[in-house]
């Protein structure tokens, strides 16, 4: 499995704070067999954060966000996630941007050589025969239109969504998270037992 780590915060972008979280998370993920494709640092900007999350989600099945969850008004990570989860890119501009991001992610993120045996084994376990299914899936995605996305998104309109927040409990506004719905608190040892 691959992952992308996004660090959010003006203090990181402006060099006021060193991003030690990404290095620590990458090491923990590697110990669990997860390869981090890249780290990205994003300012406390709603559009930039949403765009970075969207690109990261197209690049990897696991996206970890760190920072941007503090108790100040400039911490917009929750709002960016809510925007993406509740408002899929249905307008023509956002749909086009998302489609281009998926295309670029497909073209620039081939399966690394060392991952090929596990990837082929996973395809076989899923019942996929006839070689690499990605070109067929990619062609299918290229054929999707906004109407297809509207139909797909309508299935999730009133369903609960799940996302994970990793942070120090003194810095993460738990009351703000409760407003988004139910949540469960876990220790780092429960998340990373290695």
Structural class: mainly alpha
The count of strands amounts to: 3
The CATH superfamily label of the largest domain reads: MoaB/Mog-like domain
Give the helix tally: 10
The CATH class name of the largest domain reads: Alpha Beta
Q: Cα-atom Rg, whole angstroms?
A: 18 Å
CATH topology of the largest domain: Molybdenum Cofactor Biosythetic Enzyme, Chain A
Q: How would you spell out the order of helices and strands? A: EHHEHEHHHHHHH
Q: What amount of the residues lies in strands?
A: 5-15%
First-residue to last-residue Cα separation:
17 Å
Characterization of the model:
The protein has 194 residues and is mostly helical. It folds into 2 domains: 1-87 and 164-194, MoaB/Mog-like domain (Molybdenum Cofactor Biosythetic Enzyme, Chain A, 3-Layer(aba) Sandwich), CATH 3.40.980; 89-159, no CATH class. Helices cover 48% and strands 11% of the residues. The protein has 10 helices and 3 strands. The chain has helices at residues 10-13, 20-31, 46-59, 77-86, 92-108, 116-125, 134-142, 146-154, 174-178, 188-191, and strands spanning 2-8, 35-42, 62-67. Strands 2-1-3 form a 3-stranded parallel β-sheet, with helices on both faces. The model has no long low-confidence stretch (mean pLDDT 76).
């Amino acid at each position: 499995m691959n992952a992308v780590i996004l660090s959010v915060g003006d203090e990181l972008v402006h060099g006021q704070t060193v991003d030690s979280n990404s290095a620590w998370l990458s090491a923990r993920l590697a110990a669990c067999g997860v390869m981090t494709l890249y780290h990205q640092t994003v300012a406390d900007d709603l559009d930039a954060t949403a765009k970075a999350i969207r690109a990261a989600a197209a690049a990897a099945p696991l996206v970890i966000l760190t920072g941007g969850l503090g108790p100040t008004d400039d911490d917009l990570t929750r709002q960016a996630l809510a925007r993406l989860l509740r408002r899929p890119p249905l307008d023509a501009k956002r749909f086009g941007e998302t489609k281009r991001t998926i295309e670029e992610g497909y073209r620039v993120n081939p399966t690394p050589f060392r991952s090929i045996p596990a990837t082929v084994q996973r395809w076989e376990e899923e019942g996929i025969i006839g070689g690499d299914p990605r070109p067929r899936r990619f062609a299918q995605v290229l054929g999707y239109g906004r109407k297809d996305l509207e139909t797909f998104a309508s299935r999730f309109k009133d369903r609960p969504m799940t996302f994970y927040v990793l942070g120090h409990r003194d810095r993460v506004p738990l009351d703000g998270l409760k407003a988004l719905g139910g949540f469960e608190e876990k220790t780092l040892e429960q998340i990373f037992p290695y």
